[in-house]
Design brief:
4-stranded antiparallel sheet; 5 helices
Length: 190
């Protein structure tokens, strides 16, 4: 079972640091982990189309203006990947702030828009193994200089994070082909 502490301790292990037992303990490591955990998690979620963090839903119409429709930005969305109208007609869109309603909106020419997006996944038990690895490495890279003062270590861990993310993308692409019944050249050779 993956927990916040497990992910934090994986990051600390990459830095050669002793593990922590709680994020509320009074030490610099726990304070820094508390500071960095959520922003780094959200950044890593946005960096890839993680299956466990993908959601789809109809968008709530806020306003219609001539040939454009303004929809409320989904509350738990970190990154909208596509806007479409069934049966899967993709449509251009843009995100903006609506000053009248003081909310973030999605603008599209689609009258009944749906969105596929990366949601803010906060339950560590839903994270897949490749995300946990990538996230812990990103967390370690962001903490490296402040906890160890070692710029070379930070660069080394950042490189490991990049490789981990690339591997997650390849794995996810292969998994998506397998689920759709398609294969690619890489899968056929294997």
């Amino acid at each position: 079972m993956i927990s916040k502490i497990t992910i934090c301790n994986l990051a600390l292990a990459q830095l050669g640091q002793a593990p922590i037992s709680s994020l509320t303990q009074e030490d610099e490591k726990a304070r820094r982990l508390n500071l960095f955990y959520e922003p780094v998690r959200d950044e890593v979620l946005r960096s890839h189309n993680w299956g466990f963090a993908t959601a789809e839903e109809p968008l709530a119409l806020v306003e219609k203006q001539e040939n454009r429709f303004l929809y409320k930005y989904p509350q738990e969305a970190l990154f909208i990947r596509r806007v479409y109208q069934e049966p899967y007609r993709h449509t251009p869109f843009r995100e903006l702030f609506h000053p009248k309603y003081r909310i973030r909106v999605v603008e599209s020419d689609c009258p009944q828009a749906r969105a596929e997006y990366t949601r803010r996944a906060e339950d560590e038990n839903q994270f897949d193994a490749s995300f946990v690895k990538s996230f812990s490495l990103a967390l370690a890279a962001d903490l490296a200089v402040s906890l160890t003062g070692d710029n070379a270590l930070a660069a080394q861990i950042l490189q490991k994070y990049t490789l981990s993310l690339d591997e997650a993308r390849r794995s996810n692409m292969t998994e998506n082909f397998a689920q759709s019944g398609q294969t690619d050249a890489f899968t056929e050779v294997r």
